[in-house]
What does this fold into?
Amino acid sequence: MESYDVVIVGAGPAGLKCAEILAQNDKKVLVLEKNKIIGDKVCAGGLTLKDLKLGIPDNIIQRKFNSVFIHTPHQDTEIKLDKPFIVTIDRKDLGKWMADKAKKQGAEIRTDSKATKIDEKTVIVNDKDKIGYKYLVGADGSNSLVRKYLNLSTDKFLETFQYLTLKRFKDLEVFFDPEKFGPLYSWVFPHKNLSVIGGGGILKENFTNQHLILKSLILEKILKITGKTSLILAQLSCKQL
Ligand SMILES: Cc1cc2nc3c(=O)[nH]c(=O)nc-3n(C[C@H](O)[C@H](O)[C@H](O)COP(=O)(O)OP(=O)(O)OC[C@H]3O[C@@H](n4cnc5c(N)ncnc54)[C@H](O)[C@@H]3O)c2cc1C
It folds into this structure.
């Protein structure tokens, strides 16, 4: 049976950074990713200064912003600095960059490899291959199998969703309004050739009502700015802890 010091379930940013650090410290590391492509995930792709300190290379940055428009029911504000402090990226580009860094340190990454069962010493991959571990890292996102195996409960469960439109908006905007958008916020994040418009943070118990309000507000915004000819590329929906 194959065996590793550490098996990391999930090749998202958390799993890949963890793999890079552990491999750098001479651990034999395997990352399991259920998808064929790393980073293909529902995400607005906005990164802030703190993320940029990780050394995100310029060639994967889609747009840079030195101002953000913040809208609340009480006021509209522009926060402006003399240098970019928010950027947008495509998660697949980020995933590839992070995976390359982890591999460079010696981590092994297997895509198309879903952890389907866990016990105290092994992980079963794709219902057939058994892999041994000394340590197991659960970096498998909001529906984590590792969390379920450890029987850890979650008290917060949020719904978020977003649309992609081919319209390339100029400004990066966020909207706070608990009555309309729930406890988090809505966003317009322009990328190179499209914009991501979404809303997040609808508590599960309020989901139906707030989802409908948010959806219609977002559609209204898209139509207002782009006109009815705008093509909405995709409607995505997901769950996030
Ligand atoms: C609509 C939306 C918009 C967002 N926008 C932003 C944003 O603009 N900026 C920002 O910083 N954050 C944003 N986020 C949050 C961001 O996506 C998450 O914080 C981030 O992805 C968490 O990283 P992670 O590595 O913990 O998990 P994930 O990125 O979820 O990675 C988990 C990985 O584990 C894999 N996996 C799951 N189960 C298994 C299994 N059984 N076996 C193998 N692999 C498995 C998944 O395929 C996935 O690749 C957004 C989230 C949503 C939902």
